[in-house]
Design brief:
With 621 residues, the chain is α/β, with parallel strands linked by helices. Helix content is 60%, strand content 7%. It has 23 helices and 8 strands. The strands form 2 sheets. The protein has a 6-stranded mixed β-sheet with strand order 3-4-5-6-7-8, sandwiched between helices. Strands 1-2 form a two-stranded antiparallel ribbon. β5, α21 and β6 form a beta-alpha-beta unit. The longest helix has 28 residues. The radius of gyration is 33 Å and the shape is elongated. The two termini are 27 Å apart.
């Protein structure tokens, strides 16, 4: 069987350093497009980073939002620069994404809730920051190792509904996050009465309206300045409304309409020596499930985004190199106490449309983010929460419309309900549980679908399927009559538990059918069978027992080594009251042997008793 990738000891894996390609942009004529695309995508990255930080550092963690924003912007810068230098596609723009961020938000909330109420607020922040950094490092190590070991071809078998399910779950988590950013109240069954109070509704309803408006406009107009323009315009409108209402900025802030206030000083606070003594490591260890989930979700996001980029740029990306690239990006982010990230499909598409599919674009993107980080928190305190919430609502709508609404007409019903079920479980139980349940449902759906495929290619006899040996006219005519005593069952595909009973019933019906001639030989041709599982091997043993009881000679043809080993282990070839089954290399040789047995029993001399030098193989325990 051909391996998906050649690995022969010693494992020697070729690796070409992508950084060696960087000097190419110095001779490029794309400096202006790259600068434009890098600056625009960088600004969008900063806005998204702020919204992601607001999603993570909400509720009891909102006092540390300023530092959280610094962490998110730093992560965006580092991931963009490292990915641009190492990706197999020069125009890749990478950034923290919604799905991994949703996992981080869940983990941060659980950590804050798990720590004792007496824990100093700064200790809570440092513990959450350490968990975020560890998540990036774990993700980076996993992805880099998968790419370095050339395991990319194994990863592309992830069922499409599983990817869609966790995307749908992410969409709903983003809606909850948008409401929490705007109101400081999570959307749960217990808080419905609070979230829908009139005074609270007015805090999140404008964001919902902005999110819907963003979604509708960006679907119609694809220009790269549409989204930044709408967000800037929304901010201007917000302050115009404050002026009309004669509401001072500080009053608006006290009523919860603005981010902040933020403490003086820098935004970025990487973990340093003394910080490690304030981290509650035991609480982080309790988040092992969420850390694993973060790595898996980032991996699934990479697979989905990689396929989307390939369709857009009409170029195949090296999945192994993308795994290494994203792995290195996350390692760099984690070492700087940053969050996990991945390729960003919308920003990569934007750069491609501008004609800036070049490594310089990602570098300028990162520099733009770093410039914002250096400016500090002064201007961030004036960002309206409805605008940040509107961006989160927009991201949620893009996912929910695609995977809940549009997929109804593109997916089979089993796949669609798998997507919905994973989305529900993700929010009701957790990301990891939802994904695992999704894999289980996808496997069940596969088994049901495959069970509907008939593994029995045909059931016939030697009367209509004679061997190709040369016979005298008399013998050929006699075999034409006696050929009904030789039954032939040809199987195909992979025979496993979902199809094993199907072919067993068909063979049993043939052997027990009183309307059919009695068989003296039964040939099971497995030439087109790629493999069997234990259930199928057991059913072959049942067929052997039926053949023994009815005194039928059993013949196997076309066995590959894997199938033969499973049949031997199941005891199909053990000695019994009759001779053990014969094995031939192909159906022609098995047929020829059966015909010669019939001729010899009737005292007729076969015109050709040699089976081209081949004799039956007999296995006995």
């Amino acid at each position: 069987m051909t391996q998906p990738f050649p690995l022969k000891p010693p494992f020697k894996i070729p690796f070409k350093s992508p950084i060696s390609e960087v000097p190419d942009f110095l001779q490029s004529e794309q400096l202006l497009p790259s600068f434009t695309a890098g600056t625009v995508t960088g600004i969008i990255g900063v806005i998204r980073a702020i919204s992601y930080a607001a999603l993570i550092f909400s509720g009891p963690l909102s006092a540390h939002l300023g530092l959280g924003i610094g962490m998110a912007i730093f992560s965006t810068a580092v991931i963009a620069i490292v990915a641009s230098l190492t990706s197999s596609f020069g125009g890749t723009i990478a950034t923290p994404l919604a799905a991994p961020t949703a996992v981080l938000a869940v983990m941060a909330a659980e950590l804050a809730a798990a720590l004792p109420a007496s824990t100093p607020p700064m200790d809570v922040f440092l513990t959450v920051l350490a968990a975020i950094a560890i998540g990036s490092l774990v993700t980076g190590v996993l992805l880099f190792c998968l790419g370095r070991l050339r395991l990319g071809s194994w990863l592309q078998v992830v069922p499409y509904p599983v990817v869609g399910g966790f995307m749908a779950g992410t969409g709903w988590l983003l809606i909850r996050g948008a409401i929490q950013v705007a109101t400081d109240s999570d959307l749960t069954w217990q808080t419905l009465d609070v979230v829908f109070q009139t005074s609270v509704v007015w805090h999140w309803l404008p964001g919902l309206g902005l999110g819907i408006f963003l979604y509708l406009v960006t679907r119609r107009y694809k220009h790269y300045l549409v989204m930044p323009g709408i967000l800037l315009g929304s901010t201007v409108v917000f302050y115009l409304v404050l002026g009309v209402l004669d509401l001072p900025v500080e009053a608006a802030r006290s009523q919860g309409w603005l981010l902040g206030p933020f403490p003086a000083g820098g935004l970025w606070h990487p973990l340093q020596g003394e910080d490690f003594t304030h981290i509650h490591w035991q609480a982080i260890a309790g988040q092992a499930g969420n850390l694993i989930t973060l790595a898996l979700v980032t991996l699934l996001s990479l697979l989905l985004t990689k396929n989307g980029i390939e369709l857009i740029v009409e170029q195949n990306l090296d999945l192994n190199r993308e795994l290494e690239s994203v792995g290195l990006s996350n390692l760099a982010s984690g070492l700087g106490s940053g969050m996990a990230g991945n390729q960003a499909l919308p920003s990569t598409l934007l750069a491609h449309k501008i004609g800036a599919s070049h490594r310089l674009t990602g570098i300028i993107n990162g520099i733009t983010c770093l410039a914002v980080l250096m400016v500090g928190a002064q201007f961030l305190a004036y960002l309206p929460k409805p605008v940040i919430g509107g961006l989160l609502f927009y991201l949620a709508l893009t996912l929910l419309v695609q995977w809940i609404y549009q997929s109804w007409s593109t997916l089979e019903r089993v796949d669609y309900f798998t997507v919905v079920a994973i989305g529900v479980l993700t929010n009701a139980v957790g990301f990891l549980e939802g994904i695992l349940a999704g894999f289980a449902m996808a496997l069940v759906a596969f088994a049901i679908r495959y069970s509907q495929i008939d593994v029995v290619a045909q059931i016939t006899s030697a009367a209509s399927y004679p061997s190709h040996l040369t016979r005298t006219p008399q013998n050929r005519q006699w075999l034409q009559v006696q050929g009904e005593k030789v039954g032939i069952v040809q199987l195909q595909g992979f025979v496993f538990f979902a199809t094993a009973n199907q072919f067993l019933d068909q063979v049993r019906d043939r052997l027990l059918d009183p309307q059919q001639p009695s068989l003296q030989f039964l040939i099971l041709d497995l030439q087109q069978v790629q493999g069997i599982d234990s259930s199928a091997a057991l059913n072959f043993q049942k067929i052997r027992q039926m053949a023994v009881n009815k005194q039928i000679e059993l013949v196997f043809t076309g066995l590959n080594k894997s199938v033969e080993d499973k049949l031997v282990a199941q005891g199909v070839f053990q000695d019994s009251k009759t001779s053990p089954p014969r094995i031939f290399e192909d159906l022609g040789q098995g047929l020829a042997w059966c015909e010669n047995q019939l001729l010899q029993e009737k005292g007729k001399q076969a015109s050709m008793t040699s089976l081209n030098g081949s004799q039956p193989k007999v296995i006995s325990a």
